[in-house]
Amino acid sequence: MAALKYSRQRESIKEFLMTRTDHPTADTVYENMKSIYPNISLGTVYRNLSLLSDLGEIKKLASFGGADRFDGRVEPHCHFMCTECGCVIDLETEDMQDIMKRAGEHFNGIITDCSARFFGMCEDCMKKEKN
Amino acid sequence: MAALKYSRQRESIKEFLMTRTDHPTADTVYENMKSIYPNISLGTVYRNLSLLSDLGEIKKLASFGGADRFDGRVEPHCHFMCTECGCVIDLETEDMQDIMKRAGEHFNGIITDCSARFFGMCEDCMKKEKN
DNA sequence: GTGATTGCAAATGTTTTGCAGGTTG
DNA sequence: CAACCTGCAAAACATTTGCAATCAC
After folding, report:
1. Residue B85 to residue B62: CA distance in whole angstroms
2. Which of A62, A117, B76, B111 has its CA 20 to 30 A from that of A51?
3. Run of H or E residues at A32
4. 3-class secondary-structure state, position B55
5. Among its keywords, does the record have DNA-binding (chains A, B) (predicted)?
6. Through-space separation of residue A51 CA and nucleotide C19 C1' in angstroms
7. A78-82/A110-121 β-pairing
8. What pTM, to 2 d.p., does this model score?
9. CA A40, C1' C24: Å apart?
10. What's the Å distance between residue B21 CA and nucleotide D11 C1'?
């Protein structure tokens, strides 16, 4: 069992994700980290994102079509992706526990987690559409 | 606008997906197609899966962690993935339209599609756990 | 015959991994 | 100093694409 040791890089990656609400990809994290650690490698970014995700300190949003995205917000919540511009937005939805409970009613296994994604067109793209 | 032409390969791929309920990956489809068309290429499988998905004749289940999976069942329904064995099972859940409607209540864009995934342990893995 | 489809192979994009050196506790 | 972590580069995957030959209409 690997004991965890402090790393500036990991700390910065987590802090960075906390400030963002747009669910950046590993590459975006990497680009932003470079301004603090010019020599940081993409491998380190991936390793830390994966580690933080395993620890439950961040959430990995498995493929919305392209590269995986990462979310500093860990409470269960839903996501919306605009099929026009590709942006990913948090949705304030009803209690996820409730959805999970109802989904498991006709199922013989155990449901412990849930990820709901909605697709459509975001507010900004709808405005552009009108022009 | 490309006019669609018949292809045996595409037909077989669709038929194959209709017979399966385990949401195979492109590679699994490819392996199975090889018994009918020994020279079929993986590229052809990907091209046809993508085409069928665009036509709405099959559903692409974007990354459950590894490779994308494909589903011959197109009515809206939820999926469960076992974090132990990786199997993906259909879930009979409440009306998806209803979930979409409620998710959009505090949202200014338009929601047109939804994909809900549940995670946990499947019945088979629970039995093995007990031993 | 025209244009869509195919097999093949090479290219692309994303993520993981081996290794030698540096850092943490 | 032992174990973890890093940067770098190569490898591993999944998927897409260019091309010349083939097939459907």
Report:
1. 18
2. A117
3. helix A26-33
4. helix
5. yes
6. 20
7. parallel
8. 0.88
9. 18
10. 34
pLDDT at B102: 80
pLDDT tens digit sequence for A46-68: 999 999 999 999 999 986 878 99
Q: Does the C-beta of B39 come within 7 A of strand C?
A: yes
CATH number of B6's domain:
1.10.10.10
Residues of A in contact with B80 (CB under 8 A): 103, 107, 109, 111
From the C1' of C15, which residue's alpha carbon is nearest? A46
**CATH number for the domain that contains residue B117:** 3.30.1490.190
Residue B59 has which token pair? Answer: 């559903």
Q: Which of A51, A72, A93 is the last residue of a domain?
A: A72
Instruction: Tell me which of A32, A50, A72 is where a domain ends.
Output: A72
pLDDT bin (cut points 50, 70, 90) of residue B1 is low
- The domain in which residue A111 lies consists of 75-131
Strand order in the sheet with B78-82: A88-91, A78-82, A110-121, B110-121, B78-82, B88-91
Residues of B with CB under 8 A from a CB of A: 62-65, 68, 78, 80, 82-83, 89, 91-94, 99-100, 102-104, 106-123, 125-126
